[in-house]
Amino acid sequence: MGDGARALGDLSDDLVNRPGVLPGKAHGWFRTWFGKVWQVRGGGLYALGYALTFVYLEVTTVLGDLAAAESVGQFFTSEIVEFVFRFLSDSIINLVKSLIWPIHFLQMSPPWGAIGLGLAFVIFPMLLKKPIERWLFGQDTAE
């Protein structure tokens, strides 16, 4: 909890005093988060699909909430509490949707979705797994 509070304080300081450093730090935060997801979800195509689905759903949720607000100032003042609770509930829904991402993929265009998903599970370890692990962990990992 102390590390989280410290990180929040650092983020607040950067937002106010050095907003230009946020994109570089966001890459590091994303990589750390994605590395944890990668390890917890098995480090394969399922983990990648989960992470991409979750990020997509979260970004569309936030952008939808911002678009629905009358102004950014109103969004941050009068709706912040409502936004936090709605965002938390939407995040739980997004978590569940992300866990079942292969089902959405299968339903895209039967039977091509199933064929594409099967091919992706075969081809992914051969072509993309090692580059992703190198990006995440900075080293070659043993299979």
Detailed description of the structure:
It is a single chain. Helix content is 82%, strand content 0%. The chain contains eight helices and no strands. It has helices at residues 2-17, 22-40, 45-68, 72-77, 80-99, 101-107, 112-127, 129-137. The protein has 143 residues and is an all-alpha fold. It is flat. The two termini are 34 Å apart.
Quick overview of this protein structure:
With 143 residues, the protein is an all-alpha fold. The protein has eight helices and no strands.
Notable characteristics:
mainly alpha, single chain, 143 residues, 0% strand
**Low-confidence spans:** none
What proportion of the residues is helical, as a percent range?
A: over 70%
- Could you say which overall geometry the principal axes of the C-alpha atoms support? flat
Strand content: under 5%
Largest sheet: none
Q: Indicate the structural class.
A: mainly alpha
Indicate the topology.
Blueprint: H1 2-17, H2 22-40, H3 45-68, H4 72-77, H5 80-99, H6 101-107, H7 112-127, H8 129-137
Helix pairs in contact: 2-3, 2-8, 3-5, 6-7
